[in-house]
Amino acid sequence: AHGHGRKVCIVGSGNWGSAIAKIVGSNAARLEMFDTTVKMWVFEEEIAGQKLTEIINTQHENIKYLPGHKLPPNVVAVPDVLKASTDADILIFVVPHQFIGKFCEQMKGHIKKEAIGISLFKGVDEAGFCDGLGFGDNTKAAVIRLGLMEMIAFAKLFCKGRVTSSTFLESCGVADLITTCFGGRNRKQKDKAHFCIANFCREPQGDTPHEEQTQLW
């Protein structure tokens, strides 16, 4: 075990977060540049009368979100996000995008100034701005096209090996992009976006009422 390397904290423990914890935990255990222990913030809940953090720390498995896959024993589940992140050098965020602001606000002033943040969540809060501004389908299509172009450019810049544009025509590319923009949680932001834009972009009136602050969040 090596305890003097860079400390890693994973913020999030759903199926995606647990899958990342399995990979990160294995790498941290074998690479001396990292501290062996990887803390993972877990939303505390009870499964059959037992706390999920206790199950993960004793059985080394997230039986609710990633059953059948063992986590490395050096991955430690922590129910308090501040206790999990305070001494971390690297923070890996794997939570739904609509919660990231809340977590950052809680952690503000409690983490190392030189800590590095890595985003592994997808989606953009208030993604229905085209609807809120009253734009039509042509504008939405243009925004989606630009998003797809950025995805391709990002992959070609950062991915090793050959990257082909045809890959982005598969379900993992344009299909997922369309679903993200038009369905699920992101689509539900349309009403919030419409409310915010109507009150702040079209008719700015000084201070923000409490109700509008709530809608923004």
From TrEMBL:
Its keywords, alphabetically, are: Cytoplasm, NAD, Oxidoreductase
What Gene Ontology terms describe where this protein resides (cellular component)? cytosol
GO biological process terms, alphabetically, are: carbohydrate metabolic process; glycerol-3-phosphate catabolic process
Under which main EC class is this enzyme filed? oxidoreductase
Glycerol-3-phosphate dehydrogenase NAD-dependent C-terminal domain boundaries: 127-188
Q: Which reaction does it catalyse?
A: sn-glycerol 3-phosphate + NAD(+) = dihydroxyacetone phosphate + NADH + H(+)
Primary location: cytoplasm
Protein family membership? Belongs to the NAD-dependent glycerol-3-phosphate dehydrogenase family.
Stated role: Has glycerol-3-phosphate dehydrogenase activity.
Protein name in UniProt: Glycerol-3-phosphate dehydrogenase [NAD(+)]
Instruction: Please name the source species.
Output: Ophiophagus hannah
Which gene holds the coding sequence for this protein? Answer: GPD1
